[in-house]
Design goal:
Length: about 475
Amino acid sequence: MKNNDQALPDDRYFGSEPKQKEIAMQLYAQVKDLPLVCPHSHVDPRVFADPNYSFGSPAELFIIPDHYVFRMLYSQGIPLEQLGIPCAAGSGAAVERDHRKIWQTFADNFHLFRGTPTGMWLAYELRIVFDIKQKLTSETAQTIYAQIVEKLASPEFRPRRLYDRFHIETLCTTDAATDPLDQHKAIRASGWHGRIVPTFRPDAVVNLDAPAGAWRKHIAALSQVSGIDVHDYRSFIHALENRRAFFKQMGATATDHGVRAPATAPLTARAANAIFQRALRGKHAADDAARFTAHMLIEMARLSVEDGLVMQLHPGSFRNHNDALYARFGADKGADIPVPTEYTRNLRALLNQYGDDPRLTLILFTLDETTYARELAPLAGHYPAVKLGPPWWFNDSLNGMARYFDAVTETAGIYNTAGFNDDTRAFASIPARHDLWRRASCNWLAGLVARGIVDMCDAEAMARALAYDLAKKAYKL
């Protein structure tokens, strides 16, 4: 997003040492208006399929779909029902329908976000995207609500217009293996110039430890959408190959895999089929899910070698930690908590088979910062296939980015990283997240220049790489 007339000061978040700040601002001026490459997004593609799509109310845009926001409010004892979060059928809970009341609750508690990355993103959205001059408080809540409502009703705030205003070059959505991609077809058929492409996410059909009966429903859906009767392990692989080919035909360049632990261990076809058959009967053993997922990560690497799709691995999240919340509201409600993660031993089987193969790109993410210098940077600094993703989720912050640069680059450099991705459902926050990354990277680079570690010419090239080139190259965009 071009910020030539932005209301926030250009020296935000830069170091206090005068020389470093001056250098940082020079670097930032050269990269702040580069196009945004968004290779890992969770924005719903239907936002772009309908040229007249509206984001609805301010509560629907800022609060209800964004677990970064309502997670903080919930931690302070505010029920999710009070924030308009839909409950599971039959829960009997009364959900607030008055979006002005939801917004007022948000404004009354906006101070909770002071100093947090979410607070930085929200401040950017309000000031830059929506041109709101006042600070959001209990007293200004309804005035600001009305201003946002007025703007959301205007043609300039339709998603396709914002896509252009944000200067987005490519945005990749995240889609289940069984998704027919009808919204992507509609985007293509519309003739619109925006580049919205899918990403293949097979977790629901790979991870056997889904709630009772859910995995078999996903397998039935895989059979239907692929036209292949999935009745054993061999037909399962054929169906996945079919879907990957279709995703690639629709523009996909990557896959994405979410696992508790990045364990990889091969199974024979016979052993894999035995587990698969037990799962189809609902009789799989306690350790079958972990063994099958560990095997399937290697299989997915093999398929990526064959079809060229970049493989992303997102381990280390204990999903749906709050059982009561999960029962009432379902997944993705802010109750996913990081766990310690080990990569060196866990990934050895996969990397010994495919880590030296130039046809594979494996982008590794982590929620466990202790692995940056000890494991991830050395792995990326050795295996040609491995690239490091940017600070993810709880680490996607100004301080988290600074720690990442310090821990990773001494071993891996910046060219074994994948640049930045925004990883969000909140479309309006995308330029804020990229802007924060660009400021953080320029500040870090300015420190290197000030200390004589790199010269200004090199720093300029590195700033552009971190802002734009690395992500575009890593994701084959």
